[in-house]
Amino acid sequence: MSRLVVISNRVGMPDAEGRPAPGGLAVAVEATLREREGLWFGWSGQVAENPAEPVTLENGNITYMITDLPPQDFQEYYNGFANRVLWPILHYRVDLAEFTEADFGGYLRVNEFFAERLSPLLQPDDVLWVHDYHLIPLAVALRERGHRNRIGFFLHIPMPPPDLLTALPHHEELVRALTEYNLIGFQTENDADNFARYLTRVVGAATPDSRRFSLGHQHFRVGVFPVGVDVEGFRRLAEEAEHGPLAAKLEESLVGRALMVGVDRLDYSKGITNRLDAYERFLEKYPERQGRVTCLQIAPGSRQEIPEYAEIDAAVSARVGHINGRFAAVSWVPLRFVSRNLGREDIALVMRRARIGLVTPLRDGMNLVAKEFVAAQDPADPGVLILSQFAGAAAELGGALIVNPHDRDALADAIERALEMPLEERQARHQEMYSVLEANHIRYWGHGFIEALTRPAVPLNWLSSRGASQR
């Protein structure tokens, strides 16, 4: 069997005992690599003026290889073009994009650097799987070095429609770079359709079915491969956490109040300020709920060196202070805000204990928090998921209360509906969503993508091929 080579911005290095890193990508990649000899290559997270040779770690049949980046390259590639241009535009926020040619040059330079370091390690029959928006041009750099391997690309974040994508500086160059991949994977049918419309309308690609394309000498395919979660693993983690030291403390602090929880990285795409505005509206509109509910928002900071992230941090903190100042009583704080990382067992516990999970991004490729919330629930007494229509997960989780996160009254009403929902309805909705998660388990996702990459006859909507579907 040919070797699998995974390339991503960051590598999920195992811990000192050889256990895989937590998180969706790490779980999926580990499960796929275990089936065959594999290499996982990426950035170390460190910078150095003159990066040394990549560091290598062997763990079973998997080789992990990480490399430092020069400081200027990191600044222009990561803090610059990747996260101040690609991230906002692909999340439909053209207004937040800050472009410079220097940053774009750094982005291309890092992709060339990755290719230069990876190239000597590749064997002719290796299958390559490249992840996410940081590495769009990597296939071009590898093809220029003579590599004719099968290379697949998966975009974890949204793909906007052509009108927005054409606002991206160098959009045609970047999209043509994607056509160097044999297979380009997306989270949802909507993302794949947006990309297909760009290909046909903007660059003139030919297609018989919006999934197989020809553009000049290039022939490539587009597929839908929604990322799942480790359903049983997260459920067990939540069950075990109920017997841990935090469980009793959390229960005591709630004093019988219903718990609502939001778990997000602090990012403008997550809709946290809109969510807090809706919670304030809920407390206004349903005053009898004051003192009877508690909202816990967990939002550790990220990318603080980027101005837009410092701004959202300040905006969220201001709203937390405003809501608590307006509604709090001596014996009740309506909104608890945690801005640091919590362990996965603690996250699993608060999800299992919550009556409502609030997952309301303004735009998200998938949002695995929504799926983990469903997995964490007690099926005998499950909580209710309130989910943004603009999260990729909404295409699968029809048992959630689907909301427009821009409509604060509708979101406030959804909170009330979730609190009033009868047990039988909560159980039926949870069972429907849990069944979808089982059909789309993370352990199958990587295998499905690699099968489609290496076997052209494999269906390009992987979820439907497993008997499930997106709405």
Parts with pLDDT < 50 across at least 5 consecutive residues = none
**Sheet having the most strands:** 9 strands, mixed
CATH architecture of the largest domain: 3-Layer(aba) Sandwich
Quote the average pLDDT: 93
- Number of β-strand runs: 15
Report on the structure:
The protein has 17 helices and 15 strands. It is α/β, with parallel strands linked by helices. The strands form two sheets. It has a nine-stranded mixed beta sheet with strand order 3-4-2-1-5-6-7-9-8, sandwiched between helices. Strand 3 (55-59) and strand 4 form a beta hairpin. The chain is globular and about 70 Å long. The mean pLDDT is 93.
Task: Give me a quick take on this structure.
Keywords: Glycosyltransferase, Transferase. By secondary structure, this protein is α/β, with parallel strands linked by helices.
Give me some keywords for this one:
471 residues; alpha/beta; Rossmann fold; 2 domains; nine-stranded mixed sheet; six-stranded parallel sheet; 17 helices; globular; Trehalose_OtsA
Layout of secondary structure:
Elements: E1 4-10, H1 24-33, E2 38-47, E3 55-59, E4 62-69, H2 71-90, H3 101-118, E5 127-131, H4 138-144, E6 150-154, H5 162-165, H6 171-178, E7 183-186, H7 189-201, E8 212-215, E9 218-224, H8 231-241, H9 245-254, E10 258-263, H10 272-285, E11 293-298, H11 307-327, E12 335-338, H12 344-353, E13 356-359, H13 368-376, E14 384-388, E15 401-403, H14 408-420, H15 423-439, H16 442-454, H17 462-465
Parallel strand pairs: 1-2, 1-5, 2-4, 5-6, 6-7, 7-9, 10-11, 10-13, 11-12, 13-14, 14-15
Antiparallel strand pairs: 3-4, 8-9
Helix pairs in contact: 1-16, 2-3, 3-4, 8-12, 8-13, 9-12, 10-11, 10-14
